[in-house]
Specification:
The complex is a heterodimer of chains A (about 150) and B (about 400). Chain A has one domain: Sufe protein. Chain: A. In chain A, about 50% of the residues lie in helices and about 20% in strands. Chain A is built from 6 helices and 3 strands; from the N terminus they run αβββααααα. Chain A has a 3-stranded antiparallel beta sheet. In chain A, a hairpin with a 2-residue loop joins strand 2 and strand 3. Chain A is globular, with a radius of gyration of 14 Å. Chain B starts with 5 loop residues before the first strand and ends with a helix. In chain B, strand 5, helix 7 and strand 6 form a beta-alpha-beta unit. Chain B has 14 helices and 12 strands. With about 400 residues, chain B is an alpha/beta fold. A 7-stranded mixed beta sheet of chain B has the order 2-8-7-6-5-3-4, with helices on both faces. Chain B has a 3-stranded antiparallel beta sheet with strand order 9-10-12. A two-stranded parallel sheet of chain B has the order 1-11. The chains are: A alpha+beta (about 150), B alpha/beta (about 400). Bound molecules: pyridoxal-5'-phosphate. The site of pyridoxal-5'-phosphate has 13 residues of chain B, from helix 4.
Chain lengths: ~150, ~400
């Protein structure tokens, strides 16, 4: 059911780990629904110089995390903010329909980490606490219902 | 044993035994007659079905006329529950079942709820056991049917069926049991158990898929399920799947004959695996009951990791296993059985079911125990939930 790309990123995930002195950290998801992504960013002059992740989740969650880290590395914050869930899924040669929400999670993890960075820098008031993740299970089920 | 194809998912389905296949083959090409036809090859097919019926009946302590062949275990469950509900609806519209039934029973009950029936879903304890006292207390004057599975497909817990049968008999309520997972693993005598209806499915005991049987005690009121011709005494119409029925009977005969050996072997593999996982991997929980448990069933929750990732990692090492019921895999909800025994969603997401069968060996368990601890460790190191624990 998964593409070769997904299986490659699942079995050899890139950039797994933590960055102890990260400039931005974003956690999204909810263990209740079976997935959490935590993304660490190192940012210099608005450019993402290093990125690491930790994920609790299915094969697609691990693969999208891994792909998302590849996509943001070396990008400016502005470019990274524009990465969409669709772009993550496409870079993996697609995801099964029931797993599309994992790519949303990847997009949200990037955004949450950048928001955290901006907040730490005093660039924004916005908090990076996860309002999104609390809705997640219902969102997921909503998607599933629509497919049936 | 290095890598390879190791099948640890016998609760999902089993391979067809060679002898079963050989018994089936003549009924495809040579003896293809319609059992309802009067000429000789028709009669040969009819005879094969009747012999299969006698054989199945003999094994479970029933009379041949109490055995009806169906298109699957799911069909047997649907028929038993809807058939008894509609046949008895003038008496009452209340049904008692459990919260850990297979979807073949649960969704059928939910359907009946949409048609005006009331259903009580009994809770289970942390081991997955139904309490006969609670069941007795749930009985009402309008209760017409009790359906409790013999053994659970996910956690392997075996229910006190004889005790429940005694209560049902005392109260004069029809009692159905889904014995799909029990058949071939437990010796079953319907007369001693006081069950009125029992479902089985051939592909769980080394027979072909797409064929099952329903035992219906003489005198049990049941509406017909498939309307049409006069097959199965007019109660389950459609030209019989002769090779499959022959295969089911042959498979059950073999299972019955080999049961002691089968159980001894599977229990040894099971207990060793449980012991070694508990010894070698921290933060695990055995799901199900330690003694009242199907011989080949191992079900663990591994904290901080997610089951699908675990299955994919095992698959990459050539091991086929399952996380919750295979039927659940399309949904994102953790298994209703694991939630019913009190697991949190997180813990339920991290479950692994290994179900052994006749073909498995000690060497395969050696290999499992070589790769599983590493896989669990690797996934935990990737998991944000594990961070706090590992820091300590
Ligand atoms: C307990 C239980 N009941 C019913 C079924 C359904 O049987 P079948 O696959 O023959 O429809 C299964 C198998 O998945 C089962 O494990």
């Amino acid at each position: 059911m998964y593409s070769e790309k997904v299986m490659d990123h699942f079995s050899n995930p890139r950039n797994v780990g933590e960055i102890p002195d990260a400039d931005g950290v974003g956690t999204v998801g909810n263990p209740k629904c079976g997935d959490i992504m935590k993304m660490y960013l190192k940012i210099e002059n608005d450019v993402i110089t290093d990125v690491k992740f930790k994920t609790f989740g299915c094969g697609a969650a691990v693969a999208t995390s891994s792909m998302a880290t590849e996509l943001v590395k070396g990008k400016t914050i502005e470019e990274a903010m524009k990465i969409t869930n669709k772009a993550v899924a496409e870079a993996l040669d697609g995801l099964p329909p029931v797993k599309m929400h994992c790519s949303n999670l990847a997009e949200e993890a990037i955004k949450a980490a950048i928001t955290d960075y901006r907040r730490k820098k005093g660039l924004t008031e916005e908090s990076s606490s996860c309002d999104v993740c609390c809705r997640r299970c219902e969102d997921v089920h909503h998607h599933l219902d629509e497919e049936e | 044993m290095s890598t390879g194809n190791i099948y640890f998912d016998h609760a999902a389905t089993t391979p067809v035994k060679r002898e079963v296949l050989e018994a089936m083959l003549p009924y495809f090409e040579e003896k293809y007659g319609n059992p309802s036809s009067v000429y000789s090859i028709g009669r040969a097919s009819k005879k094969a079905i009747e012999e299969a019926r006698e054989s199945v009946a003999g094994i479970i302590g029933a009379e041949p006329r109490e055995i009806y062949f169906t298109g699957s275990g799911t069909e047997a469950d649907n028929w038993a529950i809807k058939g008894a509900a509609y046949a008895n609806m003038k008496k009452g519209k209340h049904i008692i079942t459990t919260s850990i039934e297979h979807h073949a029973v649960l969704h059928t009950c939910q359907y009946l709820e949409s048609d005006g029936f009331e259903v009580t879903y009994l809770p289970v304890d942390e081991y997955g056991l139904v309490s006969p006292e609670q069941l007795e207390a749930a009985i009402r004057p309008d209760t017409i049917l009790i359906s409790v599975m013999y053994a659970n497909n996910e956690i392997g817990t075996i229910q006190p069926i004889a005790e429940i049968g005694r209560i049902a008999k005392e109260k004069g309520i029809v009692f159905h049991t889904d014995a799909v997972q029990a058949m071939g693993n437990i010796r079953i005598d319907v007369s001693k158990l006081n069950v009125d209806m029992l479902s089985m499915s051939s592909h769980k005991f080394y027979g072909p898929k797409g064929v099952g049987a329903l035992y219906v005690r003489k005198g049990t009121k049941l509406t017909s399920f498939i309307h049409g011709g006069a097959q199965e005494r007019g109660r389950r119409a459609s030209t019989e799947n002769v090779p499959a029925i022959v295969g089911l009977a042959k498979a059950l005969e073999l299972a019955d004959k080999n049961m002691d050996h089968h159980n001894e072997k599977l229990i040894a593999l099971r207990d060793r695996t449980i012991r070694e996982i508990e010894k070698n991997i921290p933060f695990v929980r055995l799901n199900g009951h330690r003694e009242m448990r199907l011989p080949g069933n191992v079900n663990f929750s591994f904290d901080f990791i997610e089951g699908e990732s675990l299955l994919l990692m095992l698959d990459l090492k050539g091991i086929a296993a399952s996380s919750g019921s295979a039927c659940t895999s399309g949904s994102l909800d953790p298994s209703h059985v694991l939630l019913a025994i009190g697991l949190s969603h997180e813990t339920a997401h991290g479950s692994l079911r290994i179900t052994f069968g006749d073909g498995n060996t000690d060497e395969e368990v050696d290999y499992l125990m070589e790769v599983l601890p590493e896989i669990v460790q690797r996934l935990r190191e990737m998991s944000p939930l594990y961070e706090e624990v590992s820091r300590k």
